[in-house]
Fold each of these.
Amino acid sequence: MSRRAATARKVLLTGFDPFGGETINPSWEAVRGLDGEDIAGHRIVATCLPTEFGRSRRALRAAIARAEPGIVLCVGQAGGRAALSIERVAINVDDARIPDNAGRQPVDRPIIADAPAAYFATLPIKSMLTALQGAGVPAEISQTAGTFVCNHVFFALMHALASRRTCRGGFVHIPYLPEQAARHPGAPGLALETVQRGLRILIETAATTRRDRRIAAGATH
Amino acid sequence: MSRRAATARKVLLTGFDPFGGETINPSWEAVRGLDGEDIAGHRIVATCLPTEFGRSRRALRAAIARAEPGIVLCVGQAGGRAALSIERVAINVDDARIPDNAGRQPVDRPIIADAPAAYFATLPIKSMLTALQGAGVPAEISQTAGTFVCNHVFFALMHALASRRTCRGGFVHIPYLPEQAARHPGAPGLALETVQRGLRILIETAATTRRDRRIAAGATH
Amino acid sequence: MSRRAATARKVLLTGFDPFGGETINPSWEAVRGLDGEDIAGHRIVATCLPTEFGRSRRALRAAIARAEPGIVLCVGQAGGRAALSIERVAINVDDARIPDNAGRQPVDRPIIADAPAAYFATLPIKSMLTALQGAGVPAEISQTAGTFVCNHVFFALMHALASRRTCRGGFVHIPYLPEQAARHPGAPGLALETVQRGLRILIETAATTRRDRRIAAGATH
Amino acid sequence: MSRRAATARKVLLTGFDPFGGETINPSWEAVRGLDGEDIAGHRIVATCLPTEFGRSRRALRAAIARAEPGIVLCVGQAGGRAALSIERVAINVDDARIPDNAGRQPVDRPIIADAPAAYFATLPIKSMLTALQGAGVPAEISQTAGTFVCNHVFFALMHALASRRTCRGGFVHIPYLPEQAARHPGAPGLALETVQRGLRILIETAATTRRDRRIAAGATH
């Protein structure tokens, strides 16, 4: 039993702390409620990352080293988006419109010098999209994770995993919670329960899918 | 007991049946779950109206005659909106972009000949807005209920109430449910629980507020 | 000659002065360029109205008294809209989110006491829509002119015309100019030339159309 | 004189032919009108690329070989965007929601096998943004060029230039023309003249700017 636990595969699931004037971050609200759950033979380990350039990716690296996961799914807030937004690609640049939680605001700076310009997610994003839609959870593929701390962490994740063939990774943006949307006229709000149901589906699909489906979900521009 | 029931004030709460290719209508899903509840001394009577010009307003009139309510709140689906959208005004025109559920598609036809061009809601819409926002439910004042069956019913409601000083009325549009939004890329989806919590707040506020607050919630255009 | 001029039918075309932090108002920029033109036997008289509750409608009434027009078309800025937006209905309420140019910000106040709740435009809005679309000018029917000074003037116009059977009236909202849009990220900008071409088509259609077309151009909500 | 012409630096400016049911493509309409112009000591050479995977990038390579330009700016249509949208990054994937003009619809296929995951534009995109805004042309930095033929060509361009230190390149998406927008309700339309003025500014800025400005123009998500 203890042996089995010791060898159980792990999913590292990360959220962020609040930023940009919000008092909560829906990513951490959603993620922390799943900590310790077992999904498709994987134990979920939830971690909260600081919304700070630099510190966030060091915290992520430390969490990966601790958990030795087979899957890493990072989750971040995308106020204004309406759906669970599965990111396709992380790009090697920071360009911050607002300061991070430490007051830093890098502009057009590589995240990691001498690293590639971008990494694609290695999770089966199209199968994940299909699974969410089939379960009635609003979902989409996104072609950009922006240039703020979310993309920063996503890029650092994929860079770290580039040398680890045994671990796959990806990123999903989530909408405001309804109580946040209530303060942002016009912005969609998705219920915590719906987001958590979606995250469970994403993890199960990632855990059980080796070969992604080929379904068109691109953008004409 | 029977006496008390006989004298209890009623709230007539209406939803619609599905239209436009949907298999559910969130308005009826939300409304029917509240049937029989007591809120601020009012008993909720829920009724489903057909999404049809003409038949819908006859069904509404019949429901008003049966329930003799002190408050009528009609609820309709507004796919694409993100918030509980409290309508300010109903206008005396049908102009249907799509056929109703009976296949009729009136264009630029008065709803009721010789009736006024418009009626304002008589519920305290600004107090209702404030109450929703304070409770963390996404909400807004809307300056138009469109020109389809929702506006048709809203106009017919206010016309019927114009001669009854003892009953106040209004209309609220609600977003898609998440499972509907999952089939409409980019459209917001609000959870049934959030909508129902919002409807309870709207009814309580309407029941307990005589004089509306003066808070700016207009539109520059 | 002077006789002919004296009896020529007139179109009163109004724009507004800048508001809300803008240094120009596209409505007046467009309108003043058409002053004195002859379209379908009508002479255009252009007037600039102040973006102020009260003063704007007194200025409008004075301009109508001076010009004795057969057609009045009021034009206003709708920053964020993408098309020439032909308004269907004016409602009898002021609800200002921002102060007008005199610093006044009325909330939920009737524009004219004892006047009807609303007036419909008496210009052939569907024929005007069709004519614009046929000429390649972005156009739409709008079900609300908002609750700021534009709606205020539109309502006052239709109230003034209600007792004059010889004059028809309406309102059209126009987008930002490109140079304004350049300062409002995401907002559409329509070229002055396109707007003016559209206004000429609107006036010609209004002047030559007695019976409007019945074409669906409503909104489901 | 002929000698000078022979050694004059060139700007290769490309547009696309119509796709997706349109009868014109604003990119080629705008670009062809600038053919032969001289801007900041550079002669513009305009070329039309087919909206086809594969053929488009071969046509681009041939045009580069012919013109031997110092700058390449590719221009494409982005129906629904409101501004001149300067692209930051091209990614190595085709994912077509609609078939290209040859009926092909690749899904999740690398554009160039063994090439990097992405390339950043090498033109001074922030200086270009600032110049457009200063001239009153609606402009923005875009973090994704999509996954259709525009991104395909942009990626192929940057891959071709990666081995040519003497030539810099980039991509700009432009809105519909007003006559196109007239057929797409809600979509912005920007006048041809405004687009062409913008393109001249982009080329002049690219030609005269060696070191880009550091101005925040990223996206939080």
Note: The CA atoms of residues 22 and 93 of chain B lie 25 Å apart.
Amino acid sequence: MWYTENGNMGDVVLSTRVRLARNIASIPFAPRMTKKNQGDVIEKCRKAFEGDKDMKFIDISSMRDYERQALAEKHIISPEMVSSTRRTGLLLSGDERAAIMLNEEDHIRIQYMSSGLDRNCLVEANRLDDKLEASVDFAFDPQIGYLTCCPTNVGTGMRASVMVFLPAMVMSNSADRIFRSLSTLGMTVRGLYGEGSNSAGNIFQISNQVTLGVSEEEIWNKLEQITGEIVEKERELRKKLYENSKYETEDRVLRSLGILTNARLMSGQEALARLSDVRLGISLGIIKDVSVEKLNEVMYHTFPATIVNTFNIFSARERDLKRAEITKELTKAPCSDDLNGSNKENKAAGYAEQGDDLNA
Amino acid sequence: MWYTENGNMGDVVLSTRVRLARNIASIPFAPRMTKKNQGDVIEKCRKAFEGDKDMKFIDISSMRDYERQALAEKHIISPEMVSSTRRTGLLLSGDERAAIMLNEEDHIRIQYMSSGLDRNCLVEANRLDDKLEASVDFAFDPQIGYLTCCPTNVGTGMRASVMVFLPAMVMSNSADRIFRSLSTLGMTVRGLYGEGSNSAGNIFQISNQVTLGVSEEEIWNKLEQITGEIVEKERELRKKLYENSKYETEDRVLRSLGILTNARLMSGQEALARLSDVRLGISLGIIKDVSVEKLNEVMYHTFPATIVNTFNIFSARERDLKRAEITKELTKAPCSDDLNGSNKENKAAGYAEQGDDLNA
């Protein structure tokens, strides 16, 4: 799957996502929608992809909480959609790069994701947009652009974001200062699954704040430029960190690997923190027998709902046991069936792609 | 070497030592000795073992501090002898079980050491005693017994001790209570290298307090009996610990193994604590790929003065680096040359057995 790949500038940039917010002109916006309207949105969009063998429809409304959560852990759906009581749906490509959320805040949220820093996300999101627009009439104002539920999305309706791994910025206490300067440049920074610079795993999302009065190209170019600068800064800080505290850095990184591959119980929080150390260790050349792909695979498999979903494990304690088994895989051969469980039940629940999904 | 062996009741009893305090009748006791008297003690005792190819004389007075300390780390000489300004010497057998300290508190301290609980220590100490007595006239009173420098040793002059590993007693907070009851039975308990129940590594020395008005046999039998009870209690507590917190115990033990075999920096204190976890793990059958012999070998090699002595490393930081290399050996093949360095200099300093010594 794309989210285990080591992409462009992969030592710092884990992934790129371009998201376009769209609404259907003939249907009321979310706050005023009836159940029937919600059904219509889903109907129209499914029709737009009829005959497309790659884009499968998933009925999010009928999924269990942990199944939704597992999708959110991979950023395929938004946290908002996990708890939504609307009739929600998802059009998802086989490779899980293209994901069109239906009845999230807007009628339609087109997403395209890729590993590393990848301009292709913009190209592909636009392609999905064109495909929808061929059969659906979007709410559009010639002066303003695309109309959206929340005014912060009006105009292009585009949010381009990168997930960046910034351990050296955090360790050197320069993250907060750099994040503040980013916000003066019209960028927003969030933790992996929430706000603030206290992100477990030292993973942050950087995205554009402004969607109005700029073109999609301009939004992308700015993100690309700023990301490039962040990458340079982080690389420089890592180099400095390693030069100034060679043995302490090696010790930290190698202990984390030792614990991940030996512990019997592992919380999600600890796994994320220690995997962050291992990722740093790989990028500094300290750890050579773990690939970034393997690390990514293991990281996604340690997320709580993903464990529930893959192994039908509902107790937190048993998840900690299972998670410790999963992190042991780090130093084993690149592809392991052990991580994938055999969760027939979820398929019955309507999430047909389930089996492949977790076969990272 | 004997101290890496896994002896009788080796899951709890690391080693046994029998020590006999003796003084030469014609020479003043320690506080009143001249340098010449000290030389005479050494002379007479060396003569008693003349022609004995196994017992080598080592001139402790001419050794460097860390060389003496390295001997003390293996309990071959006492901590008092490390800092002594007297002319001190040692008669040491090739297998390092028999060690006769000269000009410690008493003129002569005969020691015999063995792994596990081993009555043979008494037999062998008596044999050494007889051998000395054949040519040296001991200070002896028919009413009281052997006369010693400190009144607490008068009588038999015998101290029998066992080193016991009591992690479950410590974890269950029952160590202090049990140690107090031992003292009412005339036994003394100390930490591995000092007083108190706060011993790093959960290793304690139990020895007889009373030396007067009892026979050597009685002293031994009592120690043997009490040690047997301690062993039973500790085994029972370990079983209970593992039953009550299976995963937490496995987690603790396996994390320690993971850290010992992966860390880049390792302090002596941490090594001792984590090796204690591994020892517990071996005894509970959690860790199967580390032998007790290997564990003992690694433990002795991590002691600070032993590292100085083996590798000529004088900086604490570099010792922490070397120690982390040493603990990595835990899961490697049983015999490794890497631990033994090549310290020619010490041989020149008069400690001829040095090279073999650390070849555990």
Note: The first strand of chain B starts at residue 13 and ends at 22.
Amino acid sequence: MERKEIPYKIYLEENEMPKQWYNVRADMKNKPAPLLNPATKQPMTAQELGVVFCDELVKQELNDTDAYIDIPEEILNFYKMYRPAPLVRAYCLEKKLGTPAKIYYKFEGNNTSGSHKLNSAIAQAYYAKQQGLKGVTTETGAGQWGTALSMACSYFDLDCKVYMVKVSYEQKPFRREVMRTYGASVTPSPSETTEVGRKILAEHPGTTGSLGCAISEAVEVACSTEGYRYVLGSVLNQVLLHQSIIGLETKAAMDKYGIVPDIIIGCAGGGSNLGGLISPFMGEKLRGEKDYRFIAVEPASCPSFTRGKFAYDFCDTGMVCPLAKMYTLGSGFIPSPTHAGGLRYHGMSSVLSQLYHDGMMEAVALEQTAVFEAAEYFARVEGILPAPESSHAICAAINEAKKCIETGEEKTILFGLTGTGYFDMVAYEKFHNGQMTDYIPTDADLQIGFDGIPKFEGNEF
Amino acid sequence: MERKEIPYKIYLEENEMPKQWYNVRADMKNKPAPLLNPATKQPMTAQELGVVFCDELVKQELNDTDAYIDIPEEILNFYKMYRPAPLVRAYCLEKKLGTPAKIYYKFEGNNTSGSHKLNSAIAQAYYAKQQGLKGVTTETGAGQWGTALSMACSYFDLDCKVYMVKVSYEQKPFRREVMRTYGASVTPSPSETTEVGRKILAEHPGTTGSLGCAISEAVEVACSTEGYRYVLGSVLNQVLLHQSIIGLETKAAMDKYGIVPDIIIGCAGGGSNLGGLISPFMGEKLRGEKDYRFIAVEPASCPSFTRGKFAYDFCDTGMVCPLAKMYTLGSGFIPSPTHAGGLRYHGMSSVLSQLYHDGMMEAVALEQTAVFEAAEYFARVEGILPAPESSHAICAAINEAKKCIETGEEKTILFGLTGTGYFDMVAYEKFHNGQMTDYIPTDADLQIGFDGIPKFEGNEF
């Protein structure tokens, strides 16, 4: 491989962009455990899943054998509007840190949704349109996914109903307005518009909501409205499949310049970004072709990998969704209201959970003040004001780069910069004013969530 | 020229990026009139200007002979962090409109400042640093320039004092927070921190401020503080010079694919984006090599080109700055508070004013509800949620593309998409809620501003 001088930003040419998604499950010996019907504890059939999800997406959800799946041309065309995302060499950050490490980041924030979420949103909207549906429902927390889905639905002229976690709805009116610009209807959750919402409101008056709760509402509406299905921005196998575009582009850009990462770092909430970024590299590791260190970075206040249980659990608070085997804090777990930004899901992608369980990757949990310090440092040095979620990866990458200063190792570090923080300035303001606090749940705090994980044969933990 | 298939986005390679700015004044037969000392009515000398501006920037301000000026390497390196900006072929917009026109836009919003303003901010910060200054002062309206300058100052470790028009300071707390992230101090203007601010507050208690007023404050602080100079984000010759990077990149990208625009459109407030975009094309027109139609688009509520006077006027409300010959509504003109977004400056770049006066370009004024309709239409079709300022150019481009539907002409339309609207959601919300109104000043409204334009021999209008 010829060693060319590496530019600040590597953009693939349009004709170099991936035309297939990569399905890492095909290369996993230990496949992720199937979704279970909570009533029967039997694997969900395609027919059962088809009540909630679009048919083609159900196929993708269940497909753990095909390594590559063609990206439909309409989706490729949409990708061309905001992709390829640049792979950036962080020359300025390296210099400022004085590290011998070489740092790269894949920047997914150059689109109006402000994050990588659009990669899967457009795919899910496409398949919904293909099926002749009228619209889709979903939930959103920090608002990135809801924005992405609004954009995708607008492109395909689909109706889009978003249930937005109430605390975010109130703290982020601008996100809501972006979604409205794209024609979506946005309802704060829990709401009076669904049975499960009314139940949660009755049991927990004044609750500020949770992602798990908004999921329950969105699923209920999808299942009870003719011509609608539910779509989800993370956690699911299909989402990781679509997000593999991140890793595939990254790998193509790195291969073009003969760059091989030693460490690959991504923030982890439900796992969509991390899973997408690492997929093709993980494939090489699974096939025994190469070795990489993978690091999942999660908030210390919502530490599903590092302190969760590997068990079957509900994907939602209202317990209307299937059971997924994953690292979970319990579907009743709600992160402290002091927690800023996303990455607040109680569970984790089954694919990533299995890989973590099999020792294929590591995980670290970081406290948010350290994360915001890293965010501000990064913004000043590299110019981009990062999302709080992405800043977890930045912080971990800086920590690894600092280790290289001590050891003198010239490691190549790659991290995912999933998005921008332009709609997170309330959190930045708190940080600037010294009003941001850290919160680490005690074992007793976590036990409440664990107690809610369903007990049945084969679900010991 | 070989006709290659044109991708959705054209990114120049790093080695194809311009290494010199282009100074359109060198090719103008009728040079823009010099800045005058308001006391003597004589052209400002380099020495006089040096009290306010950095020495090297004064040289650039006065240089109307050198067509090309080398971009210092440190600035080139910074440019590499967020440039080249993509030249986008608006395939989706063309299709949606059903126009035979070919539409291109140069997108300058892919950086945290959210606009093209960073192109000049980094240059001005660089020269301030080179001169050994401690810091710079400036004003900001919508906040894009202030954000850009904060980023640039942070990069060069310079202090940055921003006077932000009070109404924007209050309506855009998030912009303020972005500036704070980059370490700038932000003061709402008019303020009690300056003599001119106190004077304006005494005369107009409760005023929401204006750009002209914030300029006066920033200049006062720069001139009265050791080691500080004032910097400006638009209007000045030096700013147009730096912003020529927009047009140079655009032209290089177009030349690469054999594209020749028929119409070039840009929004115009002080003229930085429009001047930068059109400069190299205007050079060809001035040299008689090619012909293009240039269209400046301004808000009907602040119509300096279409309804202003071509005369010497103060650049600021407090009348502490030099006199510039330009299309002006009078330095006392304050746009209606119903006007959303930027492009609210009372005057216009002297370079562009001269070119307009000489019939080298056209101008149109648009009402803001039409502009926001175009903005939302564009967002849904092309994905990018545009800044209100940029949406003026979008609206005009769509109008031209619609004319091509009628005539069947396959014109090539190029416009400048200067930035994103992520910090303008209050305006979008008003638009969604039907609360946005149009305002066209009457001749009597304008007369108040005109009455304030200084009268002296040679300044008849």
Note: The mean pLDDT of chain B is 95.
Amino acid sequence: MIENNFVLKGSIVYSEDKDTINTIQEGYVVCQDGKCLGAYSTLPDEYKSLKLYDYGKSLIMPGMTDLHVHAPQYTFRGIGMDKELLDWLNTYTFPEEAKYKDIEYAKKAYKYFTKDLQRTFSTRAVVFGTLHNQATIELMDQLEETGMITYVGKVNMDRNGGVDLEEEDAATSLENTRKWLEAIDGKYKNTRPILTPRFIPSCSDELMRGLTDIADEKDLRIQSHLSENLSEVAWVQELVPESTSYGNAYEIFGAMGNPDRPTIMAHCVYSNDEEMEILKKYGAFIAHCADSNMNLTSGIAPIRKYMDAGLNVGLGTDVAAGSSMNMVKTMLITLQASKMYYRLVNTDVKPLTFEQVFYLATIGGGKYFGQVGSFKYGYDFDAIVVDDSKMYSMRDMTVRERVERMCYNDADAIIMDKFVKGNRIYSIK
Amino acid sequence: MIENNFVLKGSIVYSEDKDTINTIQEGYVVCQDGKCLGAYSTLPDEYKSLKLYDYGKSLIMPGMTDLHVHAPQYTFRGIGMDKELLDWLNTYTFPEEAKYKDIEYAKKAYKYFTKDLQRTFSTRAVVFGTLHNQATIELMDQLEETGMITYVGKVNMDRNGGVDLEEEDAATSLENTRKWLEAIDGKYKNTRPILTPRFIPSCSDELMRGLTDIADEKDLRIQSHLSENLSEVAWVQELVPESTSYGNAYEIFGAMGNPDRPTIMAHCVYSNDEEMEILKKYGAFIAHCADSNMNLTSGIAPIRKYMDAGLNVGLGTDVAAGSSMNMVKTMLITLQASKMYYRLVNTDVKPLTFEQVFYLATIGGGKYFGQVGSFKYGYDFDAIVVDDSKMYSMRDMTVRERVERMCYNDADAIIMDKFVKGNRIYSIK
């Protein structure tokens, strides 16, 4: 067991801001009571009495945040990827999620999910379950055990899910939600509930309004999907004809949250100026899921534009439309997507830099949890230690180069240890 | 040592044609004298006396062909990816390649390359070296030892490489080329020379013409780069003002080969109708390098259009502009790229299907080597055995599903054994 106040030594890397990566070739990061007391090239005298863990040449970086992932989709990731969103949901996703009515099935499948999630670069995650209370509680129990800090949602759906994946009506869905919240009240330290209307096509107006009432009453956050696919956007316009945009439809139902309890909207591939204004006004977080958006032929979200406009953005792996929970692979695909948006759609929107994508994976999504995703003073001490020695080089590389290389060669980056709020929650040993 | 005539048992998968993947859940592939005698669900009586290797539930698939990879760039892969082609070449690539003048450096670096290449899904590769004879011979020596079948090119450059990476003039470059060919004449069984003018900006008209004379005289093939990047295309138009397209410039110099010794042109991101006609007329092969083309913000080649027009297409990893020699990761990125071309550029050009991308990785590039890349009767027996058991599922998956899943989750696909022309050249054991 590692002590709670300690120093890690290694090659330190973290974002100072969205355009600056700080690195220290041989440096120190200090943890006290779960908080980071800064990164140093020379260890200050006052910390010299703390226990020091020397990781040699390994990279030490902040934990990453996966802002959007579907736990029940994990075990069928990577198949059926020749379909687009609505077909893919009906053919693969909804039938699979319906199986989580069976708690034994859920127990087994969620063990695969949680075990693998714990081995990733992520220390925090925001997770979709299914509409089943019991399975969602099982998922939360398992996630609590990992030591990661997560938000988890029981999904709400009272229409368009097919006979096997729909709650009877809005009242039933709301009642189920209240029962779920009661059942887990006070149960967890690190696992928090989040209200989860799947997306407007799955939720009647009554359900949407009822959920936002619960959010207000219980001070809960909301997550959903927004403007992912052109057919979906057109469908929402039919379903909520009075809305001026898909984002406005959520706004009408009161689902956009507020800066103190921001809503997460996954995707935002097709958010226009009005939708951007709405997202900004309510302080919502965009969970950018480039892997998913390319796999389902959805398109590419203009993330650089959103960042420049001051919107909150993080990255999501969006398994199983995204095929991997590896945030570093997600960073690579995010870079490629933004380069293609620039080249093929609009040369006024510059590609994301590596600095910006590293920021999005760490601070960008971490901000949803507070001061998370950096080694700046006062941040939560979330850290991962990565052995990149398999990626030999013919010359000494800078830490900045090593981190970029890791992103492009994820298979050769080995996660050694993982800390959340100063607790070591995973070790390869 | 495995015998030369044998049967492999496992889950068999191979392309029948570009739109059809054949699978056998528990099947057999038969090898005799380096050739495949077909794939069977029940082993024919006449093969029952052959030694049988039972791989249980592992996937058995044809070896893949990497149609374009730069060996000297391997050790710096995955850095500097925020630049575009010409900047990237001048900043990273040319200074690195210049180091291969030092044979000790080359020996060491090429060991990393060949060792890692042997562990990939590829059984065949077409490789760029540097302009240095001695280093290129070292590379060929090392590749010969792997048992893979490769074409390797000493690079020609007599302009625009900077002081450290240019041959003195066309005559010197041609003389070096002849010396290189003499030095390796008759030396290798599996390693063949290929003439390699880097691209037109690196080669004077005189050098281009001299190389195609050598190609004709010695019955050699040519590889180069074509229409990768918009600035490059514009530059070639200045350098060869009489050309009607970049492809036509190569045609003018006689470098497009013929169907019996086809030229490989890497990229073809911006090939217009005229260029497509030229590629078709000479039976050239397009080495499609989607990873590279996204990393360097080059664009996306309309591969589905090229296939529909009957052009020869295979896949290249194009390390180090592509960051990995993993052909399965390349397949994933190829799919994503083609989906984005459809969504963002031209909805008349349908996305590549998984069937088509699997075909491109196996038969598409394999065709450059003859009957290579399938388990159809008479093909060279190139095979890889892949353990995908780490990718557990909640239900039995079809072989087709398992192969697609492998493509999206490459890190969990473990190559157990690799055969080239019936010889086992690699085993994880």
Note: Chain A has a mean pLDDT of 96.
